[in-house]
Specification:
The chain is an alpha/beta fold. It contains 13 helices and twelve strands. The strands form three sheets. A five-stranded mixed sheet has the order 3-2-1-4-7, sandwiched between helices. α2 crosses α3 and α4 crosses α13. Bound molecules: zinc ion.
Length: about 325
């Protein structure tokens, strides 16, 4: 009996060691599209598949299962890492809180549902945390005392690494940097339902609100953007194009947006004193890093401000799926 028990145990150990050598499937659930790719210990292998994010919780869950079945036909997978917006209990893989983009998502036990349907181990992570974890695998950031990642897109996400490990907080809510306050005046409503969050000013949506505010005081001959604002067809891309053409209101808009970004980064610098800020998200290419660094330094204590360093994300919009898959692989390794 003892001998057979020992055999079973050694097979189990062998099995789990083999599993961790296998790649994992990484899936990122965005507000408009879902992205999936196979990820191994070196990073993403092959191009990601993109599909539109379907309406409703059950349709999203079904799409995850379909993506897993599709990739399984060509790859042996150790499991699935899922990056999603919202506050995630990473032990149970349940969504504790989510905002507008994914209605009905709060309370969903994603890990349990997908593990039951695919019979594969699943790890669920907040998307910005997952992105930060992917960046933490880069040698330069791996052993730093603190690195802060911000995704500047439609909203603002944050992920904080302490000695290369994610700071999740006591109740999994740490790193939600988009909702620190820039004002007490209740001037701008954030998609989260609260007022004057960093996200309400410095995200892509915040930039557009700033643009409409500034253009409301201009006449059509002063800027090509005024006609777009009057017809409610203004975009961030149009603002940037006008800025490059040295349009005066466009410069005001972009400058004010950089000041909003600087206010949030300065607050974070005073709390975390990070080695660097890593900026990702669709809007990050709009940001002038030298200008932003200077603006942050101007409003930060000198001993902290002198070390302000801001870089762009290495992995772009695939960081979330890469990090989620790597976190799944790490969880399979178990305690060292
Ligand atoms: Zn908010």
């Amino acid at each position: 009996l003892n001998a057979s028990k020992a055999t079973v145990l050694s097979h189990k150990n062998l099995d789990s060691r083999l599993k961790t050598k296998l790649p994992a499937l990484g899936i990122d659930i965005g507000g408009t599209k879902m992205m999936a790719a196979v990820v191994n210990h070196e990073g993403m292998s092959g191009e990601p598949i993109k599909v539109p994010t379907p309406q409703g919780r059950d349709n999203i869950l079904n799409t995850i299962v379909e993506l897993a079945e599709k990739f399984r036909k060509e790859h042996s997978l150790s499991g699935i890492g899922i990056a999603t917006a919202g506050i995630v209990n990473t032990e149970t893989g349940t969504i504790l809180g989510a905002t507008g983009n994914l209605p009905g998502w709060t309370g969903t036990p994603i890990k349990k549902i997908i593990e039951n349907k695919t019979m594969l181990p699943v790890h669920v992570e907040n998307d910005a945390n997952a992105a930060a974890f992917a960046e933490a695998q880069i040698k330069e950031f791996k052993d730093k005392a603190c690195v802060v990642l911000l995704t500047i897109g439609t909203g603002i996400g944050g992920g904080i690494l302490i000695n290369g490990k994610l700071l999740r907080g006591q109740y999994y809510g740490a790193g939600h940097c988009g909702h620190i306050k820039l004002s007490m005046d209740k001037k701008r409503l954030c998609p989260c339902g609260l007022f004057d969050c960093f996200e309400a000013y410095a995200s892509g949506s915040g930039l557009l609100v700033t643009a409409y505010e500034i253009l409301a005081n201009q006449s059509e001959h002063e800027s090509s953007l005024v006609a777009l604002a009057n017809s409610k067809t203004l975009t961030n891309e149009a603002v940037l194009a006008a800025y490059i053409e040295k349009d005066t209101p466009a410069s005001q808009i972009i400058n004010l947006w950089h000041n909003h970004l600087a206010a949030g980064l300065s607050s974070l610098a005073h709390i975390f004193n990070p080695y660097c800020f890593i900026l990702g998200g669709g809007l990050n290419s709009f940001i002038d890093l030298d200008v932003l660094t200077k603006l942050v330094q101007d409003i930060t204590l000198p001993a902290i401000g002198e070390h302000i360093k801001i870089v762009r994300s290495e992995f772009g919009n695939t960081a979330g799926l890469i990090g989620a898959a790597q976190l799944l692989m790490e969880s399979l390794m178990g305690p060292e």
